[in-house]
TrEMBL record:
Pfam families: Nuc_sug_transp (PF04142). Belongs to the nucleotide-sugar transporter family. SLC35A subfamily. GO terms for cellular component: Golgi membrane. This is Putative UDP-sugar transporter protein SLC35A4. The keyword Membrane applies. It is found in: Golgi apparatus membrane. The lineage of its organism: Eukaryota, Metazoa, Chordata, Craniata, Vertebrata. Keywords: Membrane, Sugar transport, Transmembrane, Transmembrane helix, Transport. The chain crosses the membrane at residues 20-42, 54-76, 144-162, 182-205, 217-238, 250-270, 277-298.
Amino acid sequence: MSVEEEGIPGLGHHRQAHWTLMLLLSTAVYGAHAPLLALCHVDGRVPFRTSSAVLLTELTKLLLCAFSLLVGWQAWPMGGPPWRQAAPFALSALLYGTSNNLVIYLQHYMDPSTYQVLSNLTIGSTALLYCLCLRRRLSACQGLAMLLLMVAGAFYAAGGLQDSGNTVPGPPPAAAASIMPLRITPLGLLLLTLYCFISGLSSVYAEQLMKRQRLPLALQNLFLYTSGVLLNPCLHAGSGPGPGLLEGFSGWAALVVLSQALNGLLMSAVMKHGSSITRLFVVSCSLVVSAVLSAALLGLQLTATFFLATLPIGLAVHLYHGSH
């Protein structure tokens, strides 16, 4: 996948190779999340609070950003950090936090299969807000590429994996979940619309903010994750009674936190030097990684639907980047 025209123009061969490597690593780390989370399951459920994992992930990202600045991996601004520029990142953290919590609430108003299919509408909402808010224009081929990404996600969610009959520690795949009756309430449809809007807005706002400020990426991440660490304890406390902060954590759970922290840092670099559209391609391509890892680690079988889903992803990459 090449760098987009709005990303880093005129890259040399070595920088282009580094960019490509970072995109591949982002795709691999993002795709590993679901299989790793499945390996954490005990008796078919996650033994720790989701809000605990989110809080620890934000804290890990904050510590990594602070460490990279302290050891001089990225230059410290002359005259000290401009703290006034930290305020806009509070809104970014609030948007991301709201989006993550809406995902949880949506499960009460629709079945998992319906959510998995309809959540791909975030691709369309992100592309639309990308054009409206950043005043970018997508060609007809690029618009078709976005549509193909949504189709690929829907195919995968509809049954890209199936249980091979072995006992695995993870939850049932989408194909098994589809046995549940399909349902969506009017409130669920409203919340889904709100989720698609906030998810797209959070991505586009973060891109605009990171590109507008001429600050080191590590410092921008420090601002963002400081806001996240301050916000998430409130969300954790408001999530109701449950296990303690570290209760139910295992080695797999620690790996989930570390991988999510690395994923957040990589995605920040994608947003800084690429675009929200680049992020959509990373997320869509990660479905392939997730499926392969699920087959290898959880004993699930790849279905014909999975291979069908990979075709529109490849065609979308060709259409979008071949149209420049």
